[in-house]
Automatic annotation (TrEMBL):
InterPro entries reported in the protein's UniProt record: Chitinase_II/V-like_cat, Chitinase_insertion_sf, GH, Glyco_hydro18_cat, Glycosyl_Hydrlase_18
Family matches, as PANTHER family: CHITINASE (PTHR11177), GLYCOSYL HYDROLASE FAMILY PROTEIN WITH CHITINASE INSERTION DOMAIN-CONTAINING PROTEIN (PTHR11177:SF383)
Descriptive protein name: GH18 domain-containing protein
Signal peptide: none
Species per Swiss-Prot/TrEMBL record: Juglans regia (English walnut)
Pfam families in alphabetical order: Glyco_hydro_18
GH18 domain segment(s): 6-357
A GO MF label: chitin binding
One GO BP annotation of this record: carbohydrate metabolic process
């Protein structure tokens, strides 16, 4: 599919105490995702009942600040049940057909410009061919819908793992259907996130959202993007996922406080950037912040042993400049906008970095 230029997108995610949709600074984005619509085991798609009103009014609300912004309804999300239900649905042609029909009907009824499949993540027990069939059928249905309604085709995108091959246990893997992705999706949001977390690195810290990784070269965003390209997905169909969250460890020895320092998890759940900023900017907490250009990653630690890895304005800006300039990707996508601070620092940094890199290419 032909990819639009300069995708500057972000996910709004419904959750307790989530950012009100009316407070999204939509002028900073070309596309905004409403996440996540619920997938049922029979293939049905509905809005979460608690947040139904926000979904129904999402497009109308974000366009009050920016009438040009495009909106997409994201389906699935990062919860285990949603992932399991998508797995069940894509295996069955009748259930796929229901998901396709329900998703298109919801998008049209509430004026979304597109649809997004957020399957986090397929497992080795899933078949990439089934996902490929779903994408073929989804695109065909969107074309038919556009012809029937005499309207532009809905955009189709997906949020995907940072690598086109997802490893599992026992030497088993899930292989994304890269040809079907290239043929049917306008772009994919590559979730280049969570390379080191308290769950997968419980004994030491790490460059949580590394763009580069001199120590483990395949465990970073740039390597993931490179693997998608080498598997045949065009650079303009690749949109870099930007993480607006981080994780905390407790150092075992404060004399060792950099990446790969001995540590144990503080908590396994992520911290939104806004919370991290509140913690490290409080003078009583006495945090020191380090940006490491070798990894394009940031961490903060204090004299009580707390160590937090995350992306700040420096690392977000560098990643976006690399994506726009050297890698010539199709854009970036914030994961997720409600985690930004009150000044929208990360979203603004990404926007400005993309514009700067683009201007440099246009005026060498």
């Amino acid at each position: 599919m032909e990819s639009p230029s300069h995708v500057k997108s972000g996910y709004w995610v419904c959750m307790p105490h989530c950012l009100p949709v009316a407070e999204i600074h939509s002028r900073l984005f070309t596309h905004l995702y409403a996440g996540f619509a619920v997938v049922h085991r029979d293939g049905g798609v509905t809005f979460p009942s608690t947040y139904k009103d926000q979904f129904q009014s999402f497009t109308r609300t974000v366009r009050k600040r920016s009438p040009q912004v495009k909106t997409l309804l994201s389906i699935g999300g990062d919860d285990h049940q949603g992932s399991h239900n998508i797995s069940v649905v894509v295996k069955d042609a009748d259930k796929r057909a229901k998901l396709i029909k329900d998703s298109i009907d919801l998008a049209r009824k509430f004026d979304f410009d597109g649809l997004d499949l957020c399957w986090q993540y397929p497992s080795p027990s899933d078949n990439g061919a089934d996902l490929g069939s779903f994408l073929d059928e989804w695109r065909d249905a969107v074309k038919e819908d556009a012809e029937t309604r005499s309207k532009p085709e809905l955009l189709l995108t997906a949020a995907v793992f940072h690598h086109p091959v997802i490893p599992g246990t026992g030497g088993r893997f899930f292989y994304y259907p890269c040809e079907a992705i290239s043929d049917n999706l306008d772009w994919i949001n590559v979730l280049a996130i969570d390379f080191y977390t308290p769950t997968n690195s419980s004994g030491e810290t790490g460059p949580v959202q590394a763009w580069l990784n001199p120590k483990e070269r395949n465990r970073c965003g740039s390597a993931g993007i490179g693997n998608w390209i080498s598997n045949g997905v065009a650079t303009k169909q690749l949109v870099l996922g930007l993480p607006f969250h981080g994780y905390e460890w407790i150092l075992k020895n404060q004399c060792h406080s950099g990446f790969f320092a001995p540590a144990h998890p503080a908590k396994t759940i992520s911290k939104p950037y806004r919370t991290i900023l509140e913690i490290i900017q409080n003078p009583k907490n006495n945090y020191k912040t380090t940006y490491d250009c070798d990894y394009v990653a940031t961490y903060s630690h204090n004299n009580k042993g707390s160590w937090i890895g995350y992306d700040n304005v420096c690392s977000i800006s560098k990643k976006v400049k690399e994506a726009s300039g050297k890698d010539n990707l199709g854009g970036y996508s914030a994961w997720h906008v409600g985690a930004d601070d009150d000044k929208w620092s990360l979203s603004t940094a990404a926007y400005n970095a993309w514009q700067s890199a683009y201007n440099c290419k246009a005026n060498p």
